[in-house]
Amino acid sequence: MHADLEESFGSFDGVKKCYENIIDLRIATPQIIINYGIFLEENNYFEEAFKAYEKGIALFKWPVVYDIWLRYLTKFIERYGGSKLERLRDMFEQCLENIPQKFAKEIYLLYAKLEENHGLARRAIKIYERGADAVLAEERYEMYNIYIQQVASMKGVTATREIFEKAIEVLPDDQVKEICMRYAEMERKLGEIDRARAIYVHCSQICDPKTNNKFWQTWKEFEIAHGNEDTVREMLRIKRSVQATFNVEFNFMAAQMVVPQTGKPGDAMKSLESVVEAEVQQVAKSKEISSVPKSKNSIQFVKTGNNEEEQ
């Protein structure tokens, strides 16, 4: 209240003294620090405003210090741009030292944009890489999308391959499907048909044909456009094999749910065995037993042969 009265009716020196007393008595709040900085900026005392923000940063810890840091960094960039780049880099590194995941995204994006506009492209790429690992799990997919887009614009689409593969390793299955389809489409546009096919093969292991029809339809259209009869047949073989795998897993869970209801685990086990036996017989009759390993950690590039039994 005293500070508000001084701003309305007092002098500049009186307002400044009032705010300094509040800070010295350690009764300031983050909003008071920001108000003090705004007051100094409006009177063109920019360095004094930055010192006020620094005092506020020294007073508070995360997460309440977030708003002070964000204003300090944005106003410093607006004021100096890239003319004091090293000082800005030190500020960002200090801010990121103990930053909680909840607040990391905005700061990392601001830092990377600074390097893009005033610094080095390789440093910007490194910051995007750090940011993709530092944010919350639910924000990681968006960060990887931004990372891929920025690297493609700075270094070309071929430089994004490592990023796509890293995203496939760390993201959950439902997001991996989207990443794989984008990755395969990129390789198709580059004319790398075998690489695109290998990505589809890898992704197929986590795509239940009953619930992921979009993926299988996309792969089918790809093979019709770029493959031949043998590659289409191979795709259908993998589809049936994956379907059988998901059926077995589903029936296993269903059998386990039957146990507490019936109280007869023996009956559930017999039911499960009969289901598994039926699936094995079905696969054996059609000679469609898949030899493609189910791996999420790496993409294995395979070459389709003319003889199915040699694969």
Describe the structure.
By secondary structure, the protein is mainly alpha-helical. The chain is elongated, with a radius of gyration of 29 Å. It has helices spanning 2-9, 12-24, 30-42, 46-59, 66-80, 85-96, 101-118, 121-134, 137-155, 161-170, 173-189, 193-204, 213-226, 229-262, 265-286. It is 76% helix and 0% strand.
- The mean pLDDT is 84
Structural class: mainly alpha
Sequence of secondary-structure elements: HHHHHHHHHHHHHHH
Main beta sheet strand tally, sense and closure: none
What does the oligomeric state look like here?
A: single chain
The stretches of 5 or more residues where confidence is low (pLDDT under 50) are 258-263, 287-297, 302-311
Query: Termini separation (Å)?
Result: 80 Å
Number of strands: 0
Q: Outline, from the CA principal axes?
A: elongated
The helix fraction, in percent, is over 70%
